[in-house]
Amino acid sequence: MEKRCINSSALTILGNNDVVNNTSSSMKEIPKNAKMPQKENLQFGKTFSPHMLTISYQNNEWKNPKIIPYGNLSISPGSSCLNYGMTCFEGMKAYKSLNGDSSLRLFRPDKNMERLSRSMKRLSLPGYDFDHQELIQCIQKLILLDKDWIPEGEGYSLYLRPNVIAMSDNLGLSNPDSLLLYVVCSPVGPYYKDGFKPVRLLCESKYVRACKGGTGDCKIGGNYAPTMKPAKEAADKGYHQVLWLWNDEVTEVGAMNVFFVFQRKREDGSIYKEIVTPPLTRGDILPGVTRSSIIDLAHRWEGYDMVERDVTMLEVAEAVKDGMLNEAFGAGTAAVVSPIECIQYQGEDLDIPAMGEVTQRAWDELMAIQYGKVEHPWSVEVTTMEE
């Protein structure tokens, strides 16, 4: 049987009482009394826009996409997603351009689709080879329908959460044959409302987030639940997040990738700065879209060497004590960059200069691209196929 892929042209919009065909005039309906809170009062992930995208997978094919009013899902108690954690997701954002043309933009959505497909494949979910551009088209139509829920201003955006959950009603541990792909939207404000707040980290060696051969390089639900206990223990000790180690090698910070900026001296005596982030070669680090973007940008900066290599906490600690660690920061979709001011290692607090020039430059250049202040292929204007 020939499989059927996601088809954005077959998308329909389900109103409160009927199904509306996909035309530009149909993309006006907003549920009654739905109103976005004042943008200054937004809390991350607490508010949802009026609509959601759903696409079912059954009988070896993706069904027609639907945009429906935001609401609860109906899931069997025996479903694979509830019993065995067979779920993966993505995090991405839509922005209102600040270049004066009022356009709506996505940041590198192709990277999110690639990672979602890879996560599905790792969980042995069918349909992982979906057409990426077709799903992006469906997401764009959802964004256009709820465009009034995208707050304007730097740091403000519409956070998009694509999810894929296994719906097979079977307590047997087996590969699922039924899925639900859905996308919900949440208007969000700046991660740091009052400017950057550097974070304090606690090195974690008792608990392990991921290991070689595991699922640390995929964005699946099972990666996150076990991190709650170590994160709470770190918070109880006065630290914001956990810095995950594997045999003293740095992997990630909280749910973000991590970067260090070392000061180095060449053989001729000249000084340069080495930007280091752990490599993806072991398979225990998530290939973040923000991580990849910072690496690509930094490769073009003069006076810096951008390197992906193993870095141990012993190396970091020695650099701090020698005054050779200029700065460190986390990187991810939610915060973009998060400066680090302290790392507790082997019972000692290592103070790090916070919010250095590399952290600031990464923030400035990414903001300029995401909000359309500069023309860049990573910034994708939200349109429909009809346009």
Salient structural properties:
387 residues; alpha+beta; D-amino Acid Aminotransferase, Chain A, domain 1; D-amino Acid Aminotransferase, Chain A, domain 2; 2 domains; 11-stranded mixed β-sheet; 9-stranded mixed β-sheet; 20 strands; 19% helix
Ordered list of secondary-structure elements with their pairings:
Elements: E1 12-14, E2 19-20, E3 51-58, E4 61-62, E5 66-69, H1 80-84, E6 87-89, E7 92-96, E8 104-107, H2 109-122, H3 132-145, E9 157-166, E10 179-188, E11 199-204, H4 228-236, E12 241-246, E13 249-253, E14 257-265, E15 271-277, H5 289-298, E16 304-308, H6 313-321, E17 325-332, E18 336-345, E19 348-351, H7 357-370, E20 379-381
Parallel strand pairs: 1-5, 11-12, 11-18, 15-16
Antiparallel strand pairs: 1-2, 3-4, 3-5, 3-10, 6-9, 7-8, 7-9, 8-20, 9-10, 12-13, 14-15, 14-17, 17-18, 18-19
Helix pairs in contact: 2-3
